[in-house]
Write a structure and sequence with these properties.
By secondary structure, the chain is an alpha/beta fold. It is 29% helix and 26% strand. The structure holds 5-O-phosphono-beta-D-ribofuranosylamine.
């Protein structure tokens, strides 16, 4: 039987997306192994979700320049020999050299229906624009921020009484299911990036899958 695929996870904060992967592995929904959790923030609560042997962290702000931190991070990730690298709430922009080193197996989960609302404060910006729906995307990472090919999205409604916090909580619920859905297909060898496009089951995908997950 084939060995489970190896996933490295990059985190900066809470780690609820990391937890969604760990839960899916633990209950048999995701045939994978977390081989390392990497953080630019030594005090990220996400780190406590795995054993000490799986953690790698450095204070990125203590490095004289960004490229030096990126090189250390990339070497550490490569040493874990991952098949896939998932940015799950990793808030630091990855330099081009890092992205090129893991290109084609580097994913990010972003809280908006890309290409709308790249960058930060996506929930507040969607509300301010009067949107009626919002959501999350999982995409391949390329050097341009939040601009890589989108694999799949999860949609939630926006209600008139929403605040950015309420909306963020609603998006987060479906984000976890979305990340597991995409990861299941990645570890099964069903998803690839070719010429800047997503290929799913051998077919190029021009419109990302839009998934509806029940809200709890
Ligand atoms: C998520 O909303 C993710 O989309 C964004 O940062 C948040 C991370 O949450 N990139 P968590 O650390 O996984 O709980």
């Amino acid at each position: 039987m084939a060995l489970p695929r190896r996933i490295a996870v990059l985190v900066s904060g809470r780690g609820s997306n990391l937890q969604a992967l760990l839960d899916a592995i633990a209950d048999g929904r995701l045939d994978a192994r977390i081989v390392g959790v990497f953080s630019d923030k030594p005090d990220a609560p996400a780190l406590a979700r795995v054993g000490a042997g799986l953690r790698w962290t450095r204070d990125a702000n203590a490095y004289p320049e960004r490229a030096a931190f990126d090189t250390d991070l990339a070497d550490a990730v490569a040493a874990a020999a991952p098949d896939w690298v998932v940015c799950a709430g990793y808030l630091r922009i990855l330099g081009d050299a890092f992205v090129e080193r893991f290109r084609g197996r580097l994913l990010n989960v972003h809280p908006s229906l890309l290409p709308a609302y790249r960058g930060l404060r996506t929930h507040a910006r969607a509300l301010a624009a009067g949107e009626t729906e919002h959501g999350a995307s999982v995409h391949f990472v390329i050097p341009e921020l939040d601009a890589g090919a989108v694999i799949a999205q999860a949609v939630v409604p926006i209600h008139t009484s929403d605040t950015p916090q309420i909306l963020a909580a609603r998006v987060l619920q479906v984000e976890h299911s979305l990340l597991v859905w995409v990861s299941q297909r990645c570890v099964a060898g069903r998803i690839a990036e070719r010429d800047g496009h997503v290929v799913l089951d051998g077919q190029p995908v021009f419109t990302p899958a839009r998934l509806e997950f029940p809200l709890r």
